[in-house]
Design brief:
Blueprint (H helix, E strand, L loop, with lengths): L2 E5 L3 H7 L4 H21 L4 E8 L7 H15 L3 H6 L2 E6 L7 H13 L6 E9 L1 H14 L9 H6 L11 E4 L18 E4 L9 H12 L8
Parallel strand pairs: 1-2, 1-5, 2-4, 3-4, 5-6
Helix pairs in contact: 1-2, 2-3, 3-5
């Protein structure tokens, strides 16, 4: 599998089940991302995409949103050495508008600093929504003055936030829910789907290996 995408769901429910505050669930979820991310790359995955914060997540409490933003900022700054140590490229995908100037600057710095990582790429989707991505992509083409006759799927694809990232081979959602919630609406049209009940903080290396094994057993016909 070249590109694995995961919807990181169940952090808050994991916290409640263990008697912890919801914020602890997010912290444990981030720690698990580092573990699973490295394991995925070790097993041949070149691109790992994770849905960390959607355009709808702004509706959550101010305390929770603030904590998540601090968590993202820490990952982009204090833990940048983690990505450099493991030779991993980092890319943040999503709408920059709405993010603080400090986070936007940290994103650009982190992406530039890790750009030469050769082990693989981790894409973190922050302030991302599949419909928002398509809307912004169309607006970009309009702003460029593109002629209607020139617009095709390939051109639209180059205007997406995900341009340059191969389409995901499989999208996994943890936490028991069986929907995509706007994740990779454009590029995920032919992705294999897998839904697991395990909450993200408990998603193990064995769970990852089961996903990879499941993918190998599927037949991808792409409409043929």
């Amino acid at each position: 599998m070249r590109h694995l995408a995961i919807i990181l769901d169940g952090n808050r429910r994991w916290a409640r089940a263990h008697g912890f505050p919801a914020l602890e669930g997010h912290r444990r979820g981030y720690e698990n991302l580092k573990t699973i991310g490295l394991c995925a790359l070790e097993r041949g995955v070149e691109y790992l995409s994770v849905f960390a914060f959607s355009t709808e997540n702004w509706k959550r409490s101010q305390e929770e949103v603030g904590y998540l933003m601090e968590l993202f900022l820490g990952a982009l700054t204090r833990e940048l050495d983690f990505f450099l140590k493991h030779d991993v490229r980092l890319r943040v995908v999503g709408r920059r508008e709405g993010l603080s100037e400090k986070i936007q600057e940290a994103i650009e710095r982190a992406q530039t600093t890790t750009a030469h990582g050769s082990r693989g790429q981790i894409n973190v989707y922050i302030n991302y929504g599949g419909r928002a991505e398509i809307v912004d992509g169309v607006k970009k083409l309009v702003a460029q003055g593109r002629d209607q006759q020139d617009i095709d799927e390939q051109l639209v694809g180059t205007s997406m936030w995900t341009a340059g990232i191969p389409d995901p081979d499989m999208i996994v959602r943890t936490g028991g829910e069986q929907r995509l919630s706007g994740f990779l609406t454009w590029s995920g049209v032919y992705s294999e789907l897998k839904f697991v009940d395990t909450y993200w903080p408990d998603f193990s290396v064995e769970d990852l290996e089961e996903c990879l094994k499941d993918f190998e057993g599927r037949q991808r016909r792409f409409g043929q």
